[in-house]
Write the structure tokens for this entry.
Amino acid sequence: MSEITVTVTASTFDVAICGAGPAGMALAAMLARRGMAPRRIALIDGKSPGQAITDPRSIALSYGSRLLLEEVGAWPLPATPIHQIHVSRRGRFGRSLMDRDDHDLPALGYVTRYGDLVSALAAACERAGVAIVRPARVSSIDETDAGVTLRLDDGRTLAAALAVQAEGGVFGQQQQRALQRDYGQSAVIARVAASAPIAQRAYERFTDEGPLALLPQEGADGLQYALVWCVRRENAAALLELGDDAFLARLGDAFGARLGRFTRTSGRAAYPLGLNAEPRATARTVAIGNAAQTLHPVAGQGLNLGLRDAAVLARLLGRGSGPEQLLAFSAGRKADRKVTIGLTDAMARVFANTGPAQALLGLSLGVLDAVAPARMLLAELMMFGRR
């Protein structure tokens, strides 16, 4: 990717994108594809290329996100397809099974490494000739009627017609937005192997502490699933401290025996979970992706919602880089954001309790399994968002 490595003073761009994660890079590549001169797009990255590309975290991409990545040449990439999604509650009535055949699609979604996705998007930006300012972070943004001035932490200054905040961060370390909720949970992440795996089937298993997701992701190391296990925050540290055998036994107790025994695990990490959404927008600044809405990982919607943000904003900025485009973006994204945030928030809060609502939740899963239109509507929302 092209880099600005010399001192940059008051260089003028049409769009300055603060953050070179998946949402920021996807936006840059989409803008170039829609006709914006690549040298008029500044992509500001606080990380070195190696930091992002070697990131081993697993992420879930919806089929709709695959289509967006194809548009900018960032697909195919190393990924395991999801053919079925099994949704259930541990030790309680109610389950539903979503299948790709119901939608006549090659997959409902895909599981890939964060580093592989970033690498594919970086290559797409490089082919497009997008300018990158690295390594640098934005320390302040001054806005006028004519544009914005961005001051970087290394002393450089950039000028642009618009600024897009795409630097997400982790819940608890972000600036508070209008809609915030601390779930009191942490997500324990790892990769694991099971004795009786089922190829291309993902699991979303609701427990009394929170959802437990197993996403199919085969690798050369023989591990078959990416694990995202949401537990009460006070219990996450204890899970990290367990030896591998004890951890796998606890995982088996929480998930059940649908995949046999859990036999191996990678190293583990944990991060706090919360909702932080509805950022302040101005006439010349806007936020997308995790910078706009940090979500609970239930149903794996955060990154996919961010890629849809990028696609809509790119389409609008292809017509001009003024305040009217940002107003149209905010209005146009309201419905999809509201539905996706509401869905994940409700699932995170209501499913993770032992109250009387659990009986209704079991009934709702049973209805989803029995009523095909309801099940297909939920799957469509997860794959493509509110359209």
Remarks:
- Residues 122 and 252 are 38 Å apart (CA to CA).
- The first strand starts at residue 2 and ends at 4.
- The first helix runs from residue 22 to 33.
- Residues 1-10 have pLDDT under 50 and may be disordered.
